[in-house]
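re: that chain from earlier
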Amino acid sequence: MTITTSAPAPAVSSTTAKGSTRPGLVRRLRRDWWIYLFLLPTLLGYGAYTVYPLVASWWYAFLDWPGFAMTGTFTGLDNFRQLLSDDLFWNAFRKSLLFLVVAVPARVGLALLLALWLNSRKTPFQGFFRTLFFLPVVTTSAIIGIVFTLLLDANGPISLALVWAGITDSPTNLVASAGTSLYAGIAVWVWKWLGITMIYWLAALQTIPQDVHEAAMLDGANARKEFWHVTLPLLVPFLVIITLIDTVGALNVFDLMQTLTGGGPSFSSEVIEIFIYRTAFAATVPQLGYASAAAVLFGLLTMVLAVVQAVGVRWARRQPKGVA
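^ sequence. v structure.
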């Protein structure tokens, strides 16, 4: 008796089973060259007006260069040493830090209260109010700064309203007073960007299952206890992310503060960005090398915050977003 055995079937390669391999970069460039052709103007503009100035500022920071000559004189770390002993630089640094410390908690806290109100089923016209509070976000900061210089003038409606309410004794130009100019800028900045932080909080609140709120109500918790013991603990990961995003935003207020106060009076509202601008372009003798050194230090501070933000986002992603 003859026993016939069939040969084993040939193994199917993983490449064949999974499909063809992804084409290489050169092949994709040849195949989709027309797509990159449309991107070319944007890439050229981004490289010329963003990447090149960013890289060049690091080189200019080591030069004594007023900007008029073709080249500057290499001075090494002299600009950085001078910055460390410059009272105006440290004044701008303190003003930026004060702006951050006051504005970020105010923006995050007020936006959370607003989001809680708009997230409630009892609130009427939710869509209207969300749009109303978001409108300042899409308005140009420079325009808002110019408009508020009129509103915060001694004869403006805000100053007159403060006198009528008994908060101030006489009409005061809030952006022209050394004691109030920075805080006026903080208030306007918080008002302008409150809507975007409100959207962040609304998105966070909607990740909490409705069953959690209903269970808290069945246990006899009132609105205050439900917020402190149920809602807020679930919002902690989002609190970290939103706070870090707003912190980075609080360091980029040049357009608003320049049009609102110009850093004055007497440098009372001069943040680091205005210090850099004034040193490079508005001074009697421009110092582009010195301003570039200040910009490098400011950029390093922003990079540190960006790293902290990345770490915070990674930590927040590992936290539970709700209760099943």
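The chain has 14 helices and two strands.
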